[in-house]
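new request in #modeling-help
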Amino acid sequence: MIKLNNKTYTCPVDVTLSFIGGKWKILILSHLNIFNDRGFSEIRDNLPGISEKMLVQQLKELERDQLIEKKVLSLKPYRVQYNITPTGKSLSPLFEFLSEYGINYLKEHGIDYMKDQQLYK
Amino acid sequence: MIKLNNKTYTCPVDVTLSFIGGKWKILILSHLNIFNDRGFSEIRDNLPGISEKMLVQQLKELERDQLIEKKVLSLKPYRVQYNITPTGKSLSPLFEFLSEYGINYLKEHGIDYMKDQQLYK
DNA sequence: CGCCGGGCTTACTTTTTGGTAAGTTATTGC
DNA sequence: GCAATAACTTACCAAAAAGTAAGCCCGGCG
């Protein structure tokens, strides 16, 4: 067992998954891996089905873990921009693999995913 | 949204994670990626903290998804052996990456994981 | 004979995760 | 002046994942 920040992990894999686990983080990171300077609603609108509550939550955790960063553009009308960090980018082989594997699996089951997938691939 | 076997997925990544998500599957697969012909309790004893209920459940799902296979050696005293399948093995770059990333992260935070890690690395 | 180990099953509870929906502040556009 | 948009916050609720603990069948061992 590994102890880190008051949490316990069974192994290093567990540690990595603590950053990117959950239903949306990998999708958010994949999106920010392709697009720069994204606003909150731009991200939201490209994640079919996510609730704002979830998005806020995941963005906060990703920021805390330094995989993404948030720039506040203005306060009076509150406007922000999100970008992936180098640390976040270093995970991109993972996203690639997970996505390729999924696409391949779908193909073998008669589902072609390539169309309309410029986003969160 | 992708529909497959009465379930919906947001993207291919989601599909892949449906096979290997959860707290224990990757650890089980990593273990079987290294060791052949493992009995139930051999696996259990190398997964610190897993309950038998969880192990049974995860093994069943991994078998159903054809990432591992189970040989029944004898019925009267019930004895079995688990092995990873080629499909399961094809995921090993993923385990490697997740593990390396975790180990590296731990190193940067002053925790050295290498010792006593012939198992579930 | 009684206990131990292997490979489970079952019932019950807790924790974690995710979803719904409404409300907030402030600006732009008609 | 009213609606829409951006970027959230809050409260409440349901479902899914995981944990706890006990029990079962069978054979080997002392």
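bot summary: The radius of gyration of chain B is 16 Å.
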